[in-house]
User: Fold these one by one.
Assistant:
Number 1:
Amino acid sequence: MNQSKKILAALVAVPASVVVADGAMAAEETVSFAKSLDGLLIALEDKENEEADAKDKAAAEEVTRLIAELSNESTAVEIIAARTAYDALSEAAKKYISKSTLEALVYYETRIEELTEIAKKEAAVVQDRIDRITSSYTEAQVKNIRIAYNALSQLAKEYVTNLQKLIDAENKIIYDNTVVKQAKLDANAFDVYMNDITRNSTQAEIAKARAYYNNLSTEAKKHVTTYEKLVRLETMWKDPKYIDLVYTYYPDYIHDIKPGGIVIEKPKYDSIYIPDDSETDSSSSSYTPSTDWTTYETMKYQNGRYTASITTTQAQSIKDRSKILKADDIEIVIPSADLYAATATVGVTVNVTNNQLNIQFKQGKQAKTFSEYVEIHVPFNVLNGNASQIIERVAESSSSASFKIEGSSFIIRTKTSGTFKATAAPAYSDLPNNAQGTAMRELAKRGILFEAKPRLSQSYKQVTKFEAASMMATALGLSSASKSSYQDVKNERDLQQVQGLLEAGIMSGFTSSYFNGEGAVTKQEAAIMIANMYRYLNRDVSRAYSGFPSSFKDITYLSLEARQSIAILELFGVVNAADSFGPTKELTRGEFAELFYNALKAIDYL
């Protein structure tokens, strides 16, 4: 009851004798005044009821709006929020919620429960695979589990509780591939150096070998195989008793006397002889490349094309990260990892006809698909092209290929056979004069652009998941003809691209059967996609795994995957340190293009 109503109620209750003053007011006038006050009180009550009714209607309309906005792609959080808002209504307000509206809410609640059960089952499979990870897991095994996790729907990822174990395994792989790999190379170099350190070496030469060993990293020292030899040689020089023993028992074996020591030759079976391994096979600690197969090979020219065959035996002798084949002015850089794993001879054929480059990969008699990019370095003049053009993959429907420009050459990236040509780069006609415009212009130069007709960037429009997927798939040359489980993707090209991104572990849908291509892309979702892209490209993200500190203060409530992805962007300089990241902001085309361009530029991909 408001203050005015309380006052009126009090007046109505006042006795007539109090109301009448100096006997001037008649009794009937007193009754009339009381009735007027009573009527006013009723009017105020009616007004108050009307206001309460209006509030109930407004609250009901807001809940109706929340339920009306729900759709098949709504999250559990949004559906729960709608239910909570409904439950908070008064009984009077609930009467304004129509039966159909309430049925819609129940439908979405039932649907999300079904999707949640499916998501939990999908998550359980991946969680079990993560639980099984041990220190003996190979890089390929760990990478396959990461792809399986990334392919989970957004809903399913919420039920994976052991993601940190996968991250730790990835961190170990990165450590092994960087620190340990380099340590083994350093240790091998030391072992090769020790091949030339023998009993005939001077004390200064042995001291230099010791300095070399001492400068090795702790990890490298673990892999040195000639350390005992170094110690034995040092003992020979430093122990006077050793020289006395040689003079006493083996004077016939003294060939020379050098400052600080004696040059001797002694049978290895003798008990006093100190072996220095100089006459043993050291092939286990060093590698001498084959004389008939080097890292850099010229392809054979015959019948208008260049060919090369790499047998499994030859592949095992390649110690560099890549194998380079040269076909006149064209260089083909093949990842050695794929050659090591080959079970049959890998054949490469390349020719240029009508300014189009055709390259074929085979393993035995089957088409070969590489797990890492093959890079084809093609001078502009070979394809009659120039730096303002883009590379297209020629097929039934030509599409932009993944490439970059270095000097006066195109560097085409592909994992499969194909035909490529240079063609005019598309251009936008409405680019803004800012960082977003620059990003969209530079991406368009590589054929990475929004499918806009006419060529209007419309940088202010909200970017959709389809558009983001198209740009990423184009940049990476990803497409898959495999059957997709997405039921809401009808366009064949869109389906091939989103399936390619799914198989690469870069981008997944809202659920395993619903991609939600017209949905918006938030900034944290873009960060996750870019971080997954870096993993796909084998970039070193280990610092973000090992607790790289983020300066953003508004990401602490996000999932581990989101926080780590944002840390990876900060690590590579894609985003600048600031107090706020804005993870839930829905990006425009221009904002997404700027973020994606900075991500590609950070790894020298363009």
Number 2:
Amino acid sequence: MTATKRATKLQDLPESIKVIDSVQLENSNVQNLRGFVQLTPNLLVRETFRSNETFLTMRGISSAQGALPPVAFVVDGIQLGSNDFINQDLLDIERIEVLRGPQGALYGQGAIAGAINVVTKQPTNDLSINAKASYGNADTMRFAGSVGGAIVEDTLFAKVSGYYKRSDGLIRNNAGTRITPYEQGYVRGQLNYESGDFHGYLFGSYTKGNGNCCIQDIVNKRQNGVIVPGFRTLTGAYTLVDVDDVTGNPGPTSNVLGKSWERFRNAGLKLEYDFDPFSVSLVSGYNYVRQRIYGDADYTAPSAGITQLVQDIPFTTRVFNQELRVTSRDTGPFKWLIGAFYQKRREVQDIAVGLDPGAPLNQRPGSISTFVLRQNNVTRSTSYAFYANASYDITNRLQLSGAFRYDRDRQSAVNTLAAGSNKAHTFTQPQPKVQLSYKFNKDLLVYSSYSIGFRSGGYSQNSAFDNELTKNYEIGFKSTLFDGAAVLNAAIFHIDYQNQQISFVQLQPVVLRQVVNIDKTGIDGLEVELTAKPTENLTVSAGVGVVNTTIEAISANALTTGLDLNALIGNKSPLVPPITLNGSIDYVMPLSDNYSLLFHGDYRREGGYNFDLANTIRTGTQDLINGKIALQTGRWQAGIWANNLTNNRYATNVGVTGIPYRYPNQPRSYGVELSFKL
């Protein structure tokens, strides 16, 4: 694996890591981020109000809307600069490496909880052709393929890949209209150059699509035994009715069908030269995102006493990364890596929320004339970092490792429609890491580590929030059993978490989105993972992740209005399932010399978690089952598949500031597929 920026055997790394190879990805029908999360303990992904944004929780540390993600996302050694690229389809993947625990020493401020490293299949001298077509319910279809090979044998290689997908949408509103349609096309090209000690890699991709947004409903309330619509403001105590009943309580009723339009551009260049004692790498990356959403902002049908609102929000993100890295050879007891990182980021959100223009023909971008919120927020960030990583083999069994990174992030924010709104701040943080590992034999490694993680503060709707800091303590072991037939790994950890970032959206009395901080949180947890191959044709895997969070200190902020601060001490952090269980089984049944049947099933249990600080709004424990059966013959495969087989429905997000808007998970999907490989 290469997520530590050095090729290393998985079982020799003193880290909690989940690796999913190309066979597992294919058997599990993984097409995007949600698919491999299904196979990974202590990692949660949640849908949000627009189709291309994804929220992650890893080891009790969650995404906050308007802040940096807690997990670094890296493709072929180049770090992506926007959350929006994370939710694109995975195509032609060799493996995915999920590193849990802070990786700031290598990846900086965006890796406070971990890193996800995606390695794509590289072109070779041999011609490779891959094609796959699938069709499912809701008229969902996907066509994907790639062609790669040598332009100049042993020297210059190329690959072109892409996909097209569309769907009428799996979710319907109360009127029976499908409200989650999408259509997206993607193309990616790459060139690889090899000449002696020099290696070059250049790629570029372009994505264009239309999606959906703003499909929330508003959960009904119960007060004094009477059920009232959730959009009504109540005085006195009340409870929410059946938070996980996302189909009829009341279900989506918006009179404006939300839409989104997106364009993504992504490019990267990696140059490497191997000198005798070390290698030098220069890595450049550019990401551009342009999206616009238009949809309901009150999430209700027209009704007496409700001000009908719409939202129209274009936004763009531009990110440029530059990294220089020098890596020692792997020979000898002392190994080292040093580097420098530069990033320039610019984000623009042109927020317009206003009165619904009325007739459907008028419900389109640019149609709002009476505003309740109007902002044009421009945020700029310039970051510098220096890092070093070294390990020393004290003996042939005992190894000491250390790392250090220093980040400096200068941010500025302005609402160009409000005079005097300019703000600026510089966030800095040193991030040390130390590890000690001992290898009892070739099959058993134990380790311990201490590290500091960092996520930069910033500005959300021109409102400032502070940076996060974690102090992480971890011990674990890695073992290989039964002459390589099984692998059993485990880790336990404790995190002292300062200034945890929490985001919220407020609809009344004014429309507002903010990120606030929780002063101090304690996190304890563990991961245990087992992969076994009892026979040549049978592979099983299982994993469990446990996280216990405790709010230890909290100050008054916009999210605690009306709450007793003392009563919040000891509560659980929002958006953190206390347990995740994963299991999968793959069995290949030979039918003849040329034909076989593949049976795949995977199961995941997510413990119920809270959406609010008071721990009164929560989703229950959920069970999810996926499956696939495929006929395999040589280069061809034809199969049937199903996701969320039991059609388990629940809430993935609920508003916690008076208006309990709610976002649902995806219902059952199923279909057929045909693939070819050369």
Number 3:
Amino acid sequence: MPFTRNAGYLPLPSASTFLWHYSPVERASTDLVILCPPIGQAYMSTHRTLRHLAEAIAETGVHCIRIDYPGQGDSADPAEGLTADSCILSLVQLCDYLRAQRAFTNISLVGFGLGASFAYKAASKTDVTALVLWDPCISGRRYLREVKLLSEILPQQEKAEISEIEVSGLQVNSAFSSSLERLSIVDDSKSNAESVLYLYQQEKTKHTLFAKQLSENVKRVSISEYEGYADMVAYPTETVVPYSAINEIVAFVQVSRLQPDHEEESPTDPLALKASHLLGSIEEQAISFGSGGSLFGVLCKSKKADGPQDSVVVFLNCGAEHHVGPHRLYTQFARRIAEKGVPSFRFDIEGIGDSPAVSGNDDNNAYSPVAIRDIVQAIEILEQIGFKRFQLAGICAGAYHAFKAAAELPPTLCIPHAILINPLVYDWDYSNAGGVNRVGLYGDIARYRGALLSREVWKRMFTAKINVLRVFRNLISYTASMAITRIQSFMGIENIVAKRLDNVVGRPCKLHLLLAENEPGLALLLDDAANSVKRYKRAGSLELKSIDGADHGLSKKYMQEKLYKYLEDIFMGAK
């Protein structure tokens, strides 16, 4: 069954909350499912699966909502920051709002991980028809303990620079910590749901006490195992959607629907989502564009800017992570630069995040062959708004797309700056193997260079704790790769990376290469275009910056702050 989708903001009492609403077209429905995501890196990894689940539910004629909790994704930040209590409260407020609108007869909550725990607690505070608890977190205290144990891997000098626990970009402050300490779904609270589906990992067993609690307090309980957990929560570029679990959830939602006492019709737009919202002096606007509105992005700008704003920063997807950026970097950076009068547009290319694959392109393809087409469409919509200058910025795959776009888009487009953060390739090989192997090789070489002065590394080598044979093989392969490039250059064989670099600088466009420690980005560029790199550095057309102490994913707050300072200088200079 066809459906429409609409994104926007709902001004809940706790904070302005970003929602996606999937609405069936052919049949009016008073049934609604709210998808409750987990938090942190699990939120980023499961984003793809939950979008597919929302689409599958809408195709059966049931309305579906995806929510970003306040403090996560594109939602506003609550005063106390992201906490378990604020997530639960937002679900209760959303359900109460929908009940007050008399828009839906049946409201069901489907949650994964901590999102399932939030859904369960919310269902004890408001009326819901059914609950799907997909691998729920039984104890917040246990979750917090695991986070604290993982945080112990931080070097001591890094710990001294942070005032809170952080793992994989998730910052756990005192308010969040205390709310997690109190969270438990094995307690005296009773769900108001008529039906519950409890899914647990195939590799584990169900939680006996929780299963018993459900059986004693809920009319209809279904408990089953599912497979595909590890693939679903993998790094976003490697995730696999567990369709078997999705099918089971969709079937459960269908049989759990209660028949109303009389025929009711769902209002045309029961949510009345706002296309934009204000965050103090900042305005954010949800924009669907492209063919059939299949592409999606968020424009962020100041409402107090002096004079017209004709320059805009365009943030490009980092790998397969959606437009909020890794660890919500793009959302946070966009709002910070907007306060300084610099507008930005963060959007998803087709097949990534909230821009589903609709034209035959592969889903979840970070190095999508249609990325340049989508960047052009993003620029066109920004031109219609009034922007004339476009600063392209991206991390990893987004850096590649920024480089390629600056090289290939028509020279009539004004692209004064292209900011490449931790790029791994400059010419993606769509047969894949060659490009990936080269990235791995150059990454190893960069690590070798960084370890040359380490006494511990030399000690491990002489005590046979390092695979010396692999090291020498890599060094030989690296030397051979460099030699081939030099020979091709001497023979006048055109190198596509060198040509692209010439095109970028010739626009004119200043290229900024921002690299974390041991990143292969500079070595790869030098291998393909050493002479051009040296020439453009001397001319000031190419700037190199090192993000000292950072990793590829910029997973710690102090790394993100160092990157932001570099970006702020660039953006303010281009304002």
